[in-house]
Structures
1.
Amino acid sequence: MLVLGGRSEIGLAVARKLVDGERKFVLAARRSGDLDDEEASLRRAGASEVARVEFDADDVARHREVLDAVVAEHGPLETVVVAFGILGDQERAERDAAHAMAVIHTDYVAHVSILTELANLLRAQGSGQLVVFSSVAGVRVRRANYVYGSAKAGLDGFASGLADALHGSGVRLLLVRPGFVIGRMTEGMSPAPFSSTPEQVATATVRALRRGRGEVWVPPVLRPVFFLMRLLPRAIWRRMPR
Ligand SMILES: NC(=O)c1ccc[n+]([C@@H]2O[C@H](COP(=O)([O-])OP(=O)(O)OC[C@H]3O[C@@H](n4cnc5c(N)ncnc54)[C@H](OP(=O)(O)O)[C@@H]3O)[C@@H](O)[C@H]2O)c1
C-alpha cells in the first residue's frame, strides 16, 4: 500500500486501518527522512514493513520515475491513497497569482499527472485500487474559498471520468468527498456544520473500499445537503462562509 503525501493525517489514518499481517506500506513524502512519527504510528497499528520514498507532488516530471522505483523495490501496488494537498491562503490567492497557481498546481495539476501515471501502471498490472480525496468545497464552489474549491471541482470531475474509464480494467477508484475535517489542514478555523475527524473520514473510506464503492460522502448527510445547496440562489450562495 502506497500513501502519496505520507504525512497526511487522513492518509495515515486510512493506512492504519488497512494494516494486516502481510501488507507492506510505503510512505511517499517531501523530507522523507523526517517520517519517524508517521512510521511509528503505522508500526503501533501492527505494520511490520514500512518504507519511505522521497516525493514532491509538484515535481510532476518525476512522477513516473518515483512510481516505477516503488514498484521495482516493493512489488505491485495494491492500494494507493493519493493524500497530498494544500488549503492555501484564499485572501492571498485572490491577489497573488503565483499563490493561486501553487494551490491549483498541487491540488489539481499534480493530481492529474499522478493519477494518469497510476492508471497506466495499475492497468498494466490488471489490478489495484486508488483512493482520491475530493471535497464538498468542489461540489459547488463558494466565494469564500474559490481557489481551493475550483481545484477540487476539477479534481472531482477528472477522477469521476477516470473511474469510468477504468471500469472493467480490474482497477477501481474510490472518490471521497469529505466536508470540513477538524485537523492539521484546518487548524485555527471554526468547524463548519457536519464536520468530521480524520479518523471518521478514514473509517468511511475503508468501509467504502471494502464494499467496492466508487464514491463516499463523509458524513453521508452531506450528499443531500449539497444537493439542496446547488439550488440556493447566487445572492445567498455568495455570502456563504468557507
Ligand atoms: N482537512 C480537511 O478539512 C479536508 C476536507 C476535505 C478534503 N480534504 C483533502 O484530503 C486530503 C488529505 O488532507 P489531510 O486533512 O490529511 O491534510 P494534511 O494532514 O495537511 O496532509 C496533506 C499532506 O499533503 C502534503 N503535501 C502538500 N504538498 C505536497 C507536495 N508538493 N508534495 C508532497 N506532499 C505534499 C503535506 O506534506 P508536508 O508535510 O510535506 O507539508 C501534508 O502532509 C487532501 O487532498 C485534502 O485537500 C481535506
2.
Amino acid sequence: MKKSVKAFSHCSYTKFLLLLNVQKYDISFKQILSPYYMKIAIVGGGAAGFFLAIHLKQAVPENRVIIFERAGRVLAKVRVSGGGRCNLTNSFAHVDDLSHIYPRGARLMKRLLREFSHEDAYRWFEAHGVKLVTQDDDCVFPAVQDSAAVISCLTHQAGRLGVEVRLGHPVKAVKRHEEGGLEVLFSGEGHSAERFDRVAVTTGGAPRSEGFDYLAALGHKMETPCPSLYTFSILHKDLTAMMGLVVEAAQVSIPGTKFRSRGALLITHWGLSGPAILKLSSYAARHLHDAGYRSPLQVSWAGEVNMETVRGYLQKMLSDNPRKQLGTLHPYGLQQRLWLYLLRRCGLCEEQLCGELGGKSLNRLANVLTADAYAIEGKGTYRDEFVTCGGVALSSVNALTMESRHCAGLYFAGEVLDVDAVTGGFNFQAAWTTAFVAARAMAAR
Ligand SMILES: Cc1cc2nc3c(=O)[nH]c(=O)nc-3n(C[C@H](O)[C@H](O)[C@H](O)COP(=O)(O)OP(=O)(O)OC[C@H]3O[C@@H](n4cnc5c(N)ncnc54)[C@H](O)[C@@H]3O)c2cc1C
C-alpha cells in the first residue's frame, strides 16, 4: 500500500495543466469547453473554497467566480492551523492503509488522490511561492513556519485571477431556480438572493446540523455532525498527578468495540492526550458522541496487548534480577513514576524483592501493563486541531466530480463532506484534493 499511495498518478493533474496551457493559446478550444461563460458561487471562504475558486478561474478565466464568506475575514482556520504554522499536507511516507488516516472517506480519498495527490499539492504550493519543508514525522509545513505564507499565497492567486470575494455574506440556502441554474439565498441585511449557473458549497465542518437543513431539503443524506480529534477527560487523581508524563508507544482501546490506536500517550491534568488518544477520538468519534462521551477505556502501557507475552517478559525480568527491589525495574522503558504508580495500583510494595513475587501478583502486574482500565468522563479540548466528522453523505455525491446526486450544478468540497482525518496535514489534503476535483468538473460544461 505504501507504494501505491506514493505512486498516486499525476496523470489527471498533468492533463488538466496541459488543458490550461492549451486554453491560453486556443480560443476555439476554450469555446468548445465553455460555450458561454458561467457565473459561479462558492459558499465559504476557507481552504477548500479558495483552492476551488483559483482552479476554476485558471481553467476558464472568463467565468465569474464569487466567494461568499459569512465572516469578516477569509481563511480563518488556515491562520490558526498547526499552531499557527499550518500543517498543509503530509508526505504519506508511512501510510499503509488510508482507512487509518481517513476514518470517514478513505475510499473516496483513495480514488481522488489519484487525481490530485499530496505530491501535487506540494508542487502546487511551491510553484506558487510557498517553500515547504517535510518534518521527520512526515508533516509538511511552510519553510517560514507561518500559516500567513499559505494565506497570502491563496489570496494573492485568487486576486490575480480575478476571483471576487464578498465578506459578511452568510448564505442561508441554495435552491433550484425555476428558470434554470441555482439561487443562493443570503441571511442578513442588504442582499437577499442571487442566481448562478453553478454553486459549490465549501462551508467546512458545522458543529450543529441546522446549517445543513437546506441541503437535506434538496434531498441530500446528511450524516449528523460531531467533533473529532479531542482529548479524554478522566477523573483519576493518581493518574492526573503524573501530568506531563509521556509513554512513547502505548496502545489504547475502547473495550467491546474495534476501536484501538497506538502511539505516544500524554498524561494531562484533566486526563489523557497525545497522538494515541487523538487518533482514538477520531476512529470512535461517532461511537463516543452517541455514548455522551462516557465510556470505558483500556490502556496498554506496554504497547502490547497479549497478556501472555507481557507475563513472559516480566517473568524473565524478575528471574534475571531476583535480589533487586521491584521499584528499581523499568519494564518496557516506563518512567519510574509511572511504574511505581502501577505497582501501587496492583497493591504491590516497591521494596519487595523480585525473586519473592508470587504468580498471582505477576498476573496482576501483567494485567495492569496490558489492560489498565479507566473511565472516559467527557471530552477535553485540543486547541491545535479539531475537525467535524459528518456532513454531506458521500452517497449523495458523485465521486468523480463532487457534484450532488440530487441537484445538478451543485458541488461540494472540503470538510462539509463526510470526510475527515487524523492529525498530520491530512484534513487540508482532503480540502485541496476535493476542491481540485470539483473545480475541474465545474469548469467543464
Ligand atoms: C485549530 C485548528 C487547527 C487545525 N490545524 C490543521 C492542520 O494543521 N492541518 C490540517 O490538515 N488540518 C488542520 N485543521 C483542520 C482544517 O483546518 C480543516 O479541515 C480545513 O480548514 C477545512 O477546510 P474547509 O475549507 O472545508 O472549511 P473551513 O476552513 O472551515 O472554511 C469554511 C468557511 O466557510 C465559511 N462559512 C460557513 N458557513 C457559511 C455560510 N453559511 N455562508 C457563508 N460562509 C460560510 C466559514 O466562515 C469558513 O470561512 C485544523 C482545524 C482547527 C480548528
